[in-house]
Every structure is written in structure tokens, then in C-alpha cells.
């Protein structure tokens, strides 16, 4: 990335992030996102996801520094050499998932997810889902706590906690992962082409309600959910040299 004096700083509400915001703006100034060459996000991964979504319409790259509890998408916090780090940063371009869902009242909801789209049971009984890929039913009934579709960038988040695979950042695949499957008990999910269209139909939704979630944006009482990659939307994310997403995803598998 070329050197820049036009930085727009954003911080989460956490005290440590707000302190970093005050320190960095006093040292380097503050620019509006529209006029900046780069957006610097101070917080954790959740705040980074929000910042990436806000910066995307402006086509601005985002460089994160960890001032939160989780920082897989963030760089180490150091303020003194920030201009040099921005000049040397490596850029990765990631594409989100697009979710489309219908709720029990017939309303259609849409959302974008950088990490994953997940379905989770809302009540005490397990969810029952039918899964179709590109219009063809592949699993007539999955009894589970839920299921999710993950991007490579999100594969170390909820997907990994649900025993899904870690995907290399350049791979043209999505992970389809079950959350606590009861039947088929041994089904652990599937790897799908990035262009695949995944549809979940909720079986018996009145008795076994299910919610859908796209990166923290929930839709309750869903009847069906469709998920696909959205290649027309690009998020630009910056990392220190040697610490990019590809390296982090490999390193995570050897912890």
C-alpha cells in the first residue's frame, strides 16, 4: 500500500479502544472516511466486521489493530510506527455471503456476512432442516442444534468451534457445517464450490423454531434460508507483512 497521511480512525466503545483513539488522533490527526486513503479500526473482530461493511461502499481498505478480546482479523497494536506499517501492509480481498430468508409472517430478509450465515434452534427441541444445493435436495433431514455456511475468512470462527474445516484464504470453496448433529449423527458437513447456492428448509417450524444469523444480524422464526457467495461485493483488509490471512489460517492449524 502507498504511504498515506489521510487516515480515518474508528474505535469500539471499549475503554482501551477509546484511549487508543485519543492517542492516535492526537498524533496523526483525523480524516473523514470519505476523504481518507485508509480506515484504521481499533477494537476486536466484531468491530472489525462492522468497519469492513461500513468501508465497503467507499472502497476503502481497512487496517485493524487489536484493542478487543478477539483479534484474528486484527494486527498487533503499536501506534508509533503506524504510517510505516500502513505503507508496507499487504492487502487481501474477501467476498461475503448473501443471506435471503423468509420468516413465519412471510417477510423476506436479506443480509451480508463476512464470516458465516448460521441457523440455530430457538427452543428446547432440536431443529429439523432439509438441505438443498443448487436446487437439488442433498440431505432430507438433519436433526441438529443448527448448521452454518462459512467463508474461508470466517472458517476459524464459529465454523471451527463447530468442528468445521479451516479453509485456505484463496480457496474457491465454502464450508457447510452441522452444529451438534443428532441425526445423521456422524454427518460433519461438506465442502462446496464457492458458486454453490445453499438452501435450508425448516421442517415443522411451529414446533421447532429456528433463527438465522448473518454476522450477528438475527432473523427469528425463519421458514427457509438461502445462502450464496456474493462476488460483486469486495472487502479490502490490510495486514502486516507475513501476518496476512493466508498465514494465519495455516498457523491456526498447527497451534
Short structural summary:
Helix content is 17%, strand content 38%.
Spatial ordering of strands, largest sheet: 6-5-16-13-8-9
Helix/sheet category: alpha+beta
Which CATH architecture of the largest domain is right? Sandwich
CATH fold-level label of the largest domain = Tumour Suppressor Smad4
Q: How many β strands by DSSP?
A: 17
**Sheet of most strands:** 6 strands, antiparallel
Give me the number of helical elements.
5
How would you describe the overall organization of this protein?
With 255 residues, the protein is an alpha+beta fold. The chain folds into two domains: 7-94 and 234-252, Probable inorganic polyphosphate/atp-NAD kinase, domain 1 (Rossmann fold, 3-Layer(aba) Sandwich), CATH 3.40.50.10330; 97-229, Probable inorganic polyphosphate/atp-NAD kinase, domain 2 (Tumour Suppressor Smad4, Sandwich). It is 17% helix and 38% strand. It has helices at 15-28, 45-55, 82-88, 158-161, 245-252; strands at residues 7-11, 38-43, 62-66, 90-94, 97-103, 108-113, 116-121, 127-133, 136-144, 146-150, 173-179, 190-193, 198-202, 210-214, 217-219, 222-229, 235-239. Strands 6-5-16-13-8-9 form a six-stranded antiparallel sheet, with no helix packed on it. It has a six-stranded antiparallel sheet with strand order 12-11-10-7-14-15, with no helix packed on it. Strands 1-2-3-17-4 form a five-stranded mixed sheet, with helices on both faces. A hairpin with a 4-residue loop joins β5 (97-103) and β6. It is elongated, with a radius of gyration of 19 Å. The mean pLDDT is 93.
Amino acid at each position: 500500500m502507498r504511504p498515506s497521511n489521510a487516515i480515518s480512525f474508528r474505535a469500539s466503545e471499549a475503554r482501551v479502544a477509546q484511549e487508543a483513539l485519543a492517542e492516535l488522533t492526537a498524533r496523526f490527526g483525523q480524516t473523514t472516511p470519505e476523504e481518507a486513503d485508509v480506515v484504521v479500526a481499533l477494537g476486536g473482530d466484531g468491530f472489525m466486521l462492522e468497519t469492513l461493511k461500513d468501508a465497503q461502499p467507499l472502497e476503502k481498505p481497512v487496517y485493524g489493530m487489536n484493542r478487543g478480546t478477539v483479534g484474528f482479523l486484527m494486527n498487533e497494536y503499536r501506534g508509533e510506527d503506524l504510517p510505516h506499517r500502513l505503507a508496507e501492509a499487504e492487502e487481501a480481498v474477501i467476498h461475503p455471503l448473501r443471506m435471503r430468508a423468509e420468516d413465519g409472517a412471510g417477510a423476506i430478509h436479506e443480509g451480508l456476512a463476512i464470516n458465516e450465515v448460521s441457523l440455530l434452534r430457538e427452543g428446547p427441541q432440536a431443529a429439523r432442516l432439509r438441505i438443498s444445493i443448487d436446487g437439488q435436495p442433498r440431505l432430507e433431514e438433519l436433526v441438529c442444534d443448527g448448521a452454518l455456511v462459512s467463508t474461508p475468512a470466517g472458517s476459524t470462527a464459529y465454523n471451527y468451534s463447530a468442528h468445521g474445516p479451516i479453509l485456505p484464504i484463496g480457496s474457491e470453496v465454502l464450508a457447510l457445517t452441522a452444529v451438534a448433529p443428532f441425526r445423521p449423527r456422524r454427518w460433519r458437513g461438506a465442502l462446496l464450490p464457492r458458486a454453490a447456492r445453499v438452501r435450508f428448509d425448516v421442517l415443522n417450524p411451529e414446533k421447532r423454531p429456528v433463527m438465522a444469523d448473518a454476522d450477528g444480524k438475527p432473523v427469528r422464526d425463519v421458514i427457509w434460508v438461502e445462502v450464496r457467495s456474493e462476488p460483486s461485493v469486495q472487502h479490502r483488509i490490510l495486514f502486516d507483512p507475513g501476518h496476512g490471512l493466508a498465514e494465519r489460517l495455516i498457523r491456526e492449524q498447527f497451534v
